[in-house]
């Protein structure tokens, strides 16, 4: 899958999370779509670079929890991307609590999986 397609899928998933999850808001920017696009770009870059390293490091805990700890890794990636987007561009996510981030990471994972299955590898 090309990077542009991955970015578009992530943007759709982030928009769904902003719409569905209370405690998650887009901050900064002229419009919400610019904030979503920039945040999705940073989240896609973080997921491609940092997430595989954290998944390998957390492998023993993930085996013990039968893979449920990967949801915590996804939540941490969401926090990292929000911190980077807010710090670098002043645009991104405002996360009210860990619970909101946890639910948002689940929503982003589910929506990404659905949109990826529709888009495919082509």
TrEMBL record:
InterPro entries: Phage_holin_4_2. The chain crosses the membrane at residues 33-50, 62-85, 91-119. Keywords: Membrane, Transmembrane, Transmembrane helix. Signal peptide: none annotated. This is Phage holin family protein. It comes from Adlercreutzia faecimuris. The lineage of its organism: Bacteria, Bacillati, Actinomycetota, Coriobacteriia, Eggerthellales.
């Amino acid at each position: 899958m090309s990077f542009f397609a991955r970015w578009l899928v992530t943007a759709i998933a982030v928009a769904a999370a902003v719409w569905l999850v209370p405690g998650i808001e887009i901050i900064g920017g002229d419009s919400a779509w610019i904030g979503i696009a920039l945040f999705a770009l940073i989240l896609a870059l973080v997921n491609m670079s940092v997430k595989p390293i954290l998944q390998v490091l957390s492998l023993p805990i993930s085996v013990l929890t039968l893979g449920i700890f990967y949801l915590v890794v996804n939540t941490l990636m969401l926090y990292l991307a929000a911190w980077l987007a807010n710090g670098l561009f002043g645009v991104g996510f405002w996360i009210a609590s860990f619970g909101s981030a946890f639910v948002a990471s689940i929503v982003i994972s589910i929506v990404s999986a659905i949109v990826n299955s529709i888009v495919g590898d082509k």
